[in-house]
Amino acid sequence: MHLTHLTCTLCGQKHDARVPQNVSACCGKPLFAAYDLVAAARTLTRESLRTREKSIWRYREVLPVRDAASIVTLGEGWTPLLPAPRLAAKNGLAQVFIKDEAQNPTGSFKARGMTAAVSMAKEFGLTKLAVPSAGNAAGALAAYAARAGLEAHIFMPRDTPRANLVECEQTGAHVTLIDGLITDCGAEVAKRKAAAGWFDVSTLKEPYRAEGKKTLGYEVAEQLGWKLPDVILYPTGGGTGLIGMWKAFSEMEELGLLPRGTKRPRMYTVQADGCQPIVRAFHAGEKFAAEHLGAQTRASGLRVPKAIGDFIMLDALRTSGGGAVAIPDADMISATREVGAAEGIFPAPEGAACYAALKTLVAAGQIRPEETVVIFNTGTGLKYLECY
């Protein structure tokens, strides 16, 4: 509604938001959507939000779609922020919350990004979308493309959880399985897209999935009574959610939804020890993350050996005073049962990894007893039955 232009996340150069864009023409890096926040603030207020729809589109003024008729929705967003008192007590903490993204359409947080990306594709008149995916993004693209009447072309590693494959097939997508990792799938999309007429909606290789994901930050703030938690633990593959939330915190200040100078949460990225490019780069003090060769983990959403938004994530982690934690697969699986038995939530291994990271950070004294912590469960464990 108030989208003005796109900005290169590395050098700041402006790009035209009136035409479809992938990465920046200047640096080949992700593009961020920029808005007229002064205009947006006239109608996007704490008061106005009280009566709005319970979906990500309640934040319509800071989402990119200009024409409401272009919005492709399945009712995504406004997922519960659930108190986890037993897990908090077990770890000697005052407050732990789980943001349960499993309750989105398609069972994961990927619905947020795809509703925005597919809506923009529809507004631009695109007809064929393609994505490499470790599973949940594929299911989300398949569903939202079907809802919009667009073609979805999906490339997944051959060992992706079967639930994701079935989901894509049953929602009409064209699915190709690749012997390799998500990076190999991405290379295949890049090789074919020009000749096939596909628009690439890969993580952070188009500007609008991050806009859908940033609503996680808006929701957490609103659900906590317009306060931010002290600590956020977020499972990181491509990192769009973490990046989107960091963007959202700045926007909310500009909009007047948060007071000027609001202290940001300490952001912690959680990865698998078998695929930890961001963790390694963080601890080595590097600006960019080298590819994690031979990546292996049963948490398919974390098996992303190279992320294009690495430098944005690393900056957010360091600026916030947070950090990066790698978790063994065995600890994720045991944490799944611990979360489930204590709080009745069956998290994806990626979400369980965040609880395992919480225990690690508490034991190391990096999270204090009086602090409020938000854990993100990014999807339902039902899609990962092979893990159990």
Detailed description of the structure:
With about 400 residues, this protein is of the alpha/beta class. It has a domain of about 200 residues: Rossmann fold (3-Layer(aba) Sandwich). The chain is built from 14 helices and 13 strands. Strands 4-5-13-10-11-12 form a six-stranded mixed beta sheet, with helices on both faces. Strands 8-7-6-9 form a four-stranded parallel beta sheet, with helices on both faces. Helix 4 runs parallel beside helix 5, helix 5 packs parallel to helix 6 and helix 9 crosses helix 10. The protein is globular and about 55 Å long. The mean pLDDT is about 95.
Give the arrangement of secondary structure elements.
Blueprint: E1 3-8, E2 14-15, E3 31-35, H1 37-41, H2 46-49, E4 81-83, H3 85-90, E5 95-100, H4 110-124, E6 128-132, H5 136-148, E7 151-157, H6 162-170, E8 174-178, H7 182-196, E9 199-200, H8 209-213, H9 215-223, E10 231-235, H10 240-255, E11 266-272, H11 277-284, H12 310-320, E12 323-327, H13 329-343, H14 349-363, E13 372-377
Helix pairs in contact: 4-5, 5-6, 9-10, 13-14
